[in-house]
Specification:
By secondary structure, the protein is α/β, with parallel strands linked by helices. The chain is built from five helices and four strands; from the N terminus they run E-H-E-H-E-H-E-H-H. The longest helix has 11 residues, at 71-81.
Amino acid sequence: MQNKLFFSIVIPTLNEESYLPLLLEDLADQTYTDFEVIHVDGSSEDQTVKKAKSFEKKLNLSTYTTDIRNVSHQRNIGIEKSKGKWIIFMDADNRLPKYFLDGVRYRLAQNPKTSIFTTWLQIDKEKTLNKPIERT
């Protein structure tokens, strides 16, 4: 019997009250639901934490706050708090289709020896300043 995948989604934030609720709503609408959300806030000066906590009934969500405003530090806290075999880092301004986690699960099932993965973005072809980012 195959073990069910459990994901830990780590989201570092700083003053993201406008964007974070959109991502959390996308996560609440996922077709695959075996995941936790670990939100690590860098002592925001807006309503980011309050808005995140409003999703606690919709998601398996934990919010932590740190005085250190550093995305790497915040991600490390998220790793320490995570329970999943797979950790997915997200930024507060990400938007996701409802099948995103199902897609990740499908790809991992196709390639069970995977140890790390990333996503590929196709940047708007008309904005030549973004070409180096796309190539990277």
